[in-house]
Write a structure and sequence with these properties.
Layout: E1 21-22, H1 23-40, H2 47-65, E2 71-76, H3 79-83, E3 98-102, H4 108-125, H5 130-149, H6 154-158, H7 173-187, H8 190-199, H9 218-230
Antiparallel strand pairs: 1-2, 2-3
EC number: 3.2.1.4
Domain Glycoside hydrolase family: 5-228
Family: Belongs to the glycosyl hydrolase 9 (cellulase E) family.
């Protein structure tokens, strides 16, 4: 739904050559950046600092997008008008209408992906900024709870503003398990282990495990769950 009150959503990343901010794929990009640093950060050399800045630029925005209780901002900008007027950000003059999901208009996939991004990023910053790391993890828990408690697809809640641009074709169950798996890795809390066990059976068995991206998380879930098992978090 369109959000008609003024809110600070400065920051984050544009989708492509346009000036629309689609939070769902943006959050996935931040999750993947954080994951790459967790796995390969020691090999990045001087580029590690660039990676950390890129991640924080995204997580600062995700904190803003989840700063109003009961709402998660899933998009900024009208994609139809914006796609007809490509221009550099310095010249942007298209409406910056924010679109949010809520209790009444849920969006479990975008909310759970934000939780995954914040949880993964909290581990990145834990050794260097414990206060910021704790803030990210606290928000990740809250947003995941929101995603799980008020289940529904943002396809239905945002309608033509989300589809066909970043329509969620695989359903939101994979994002819920993906978010829980990242929170399990970040916290080692039994709650998230039990959540993964209880909900992983709900994943669409027809989905391809050869595909991994902003919409389909099955392959990534397999990696995280396998890693957790190897690291003695028993399933």
């Amino acid at each position: 739904m369109a959000f008609h009150s003024q809110v600070d959503l400065v920051g984050g990343y544009y989708d492509a050559g346009d000036n629309v901010k689609f939070t769902f794929p943006m959050a996935f990009s931040i999750t993947m950046l954080a994951w790459s640093v967790l796995e390969f950060g020691q090999s990045l050399g001087t580029d590690l600092q660039h990676s950390l800045k890129a991640i924080q630029w995204g997580t600062d925005y995700l904190l803003k997008a989840t700063s109003i209780p009961g709402f998660v901002f899933a998009q900024v900008g009208d994609p139809y008008g914006d796609h007809n007027c490509w221009e550099r950000p310095e010249d942007m003059d298209t409406p910056r209408t924010p679109y949010a999901v809520s209790k009444e208009f849920p969006g479990s996939e975008v909310s759970a992906e934000i939780a995954a991004a914040l949880a993964a990023s909290s581990m990145v910053f834990r050794p260097i900024n414990r206060g910021y790391s704790a803030r990210l993890l606290k928000r990740a828990r809250m947003v995941f709870e929101f995603a799980d408690k008020y289940r529904g697809s943002y396809n239905d809640s945002l309608g033509p503003w989300a589809c066909p641009f970043y329509c969620d074709y695989s359903g939101y169950q994979d994002e819920l398990v993906w978010g829980a798996a990242w929170l399990l890795r970040a916290t080692k809390a039994p709650y998230y282990r039990n959540y993964v066990l209880a909900n992983i059976q709900n994943l669409d068995k027809s989905s391809s495990f050869a595909e991994f991206g902003w919409d389909t998380k099955h392959a990534g879930i397999n990696v995280l769950v396998s890693r957790a098992s190897i690291c003695s978090i028993k399933f």
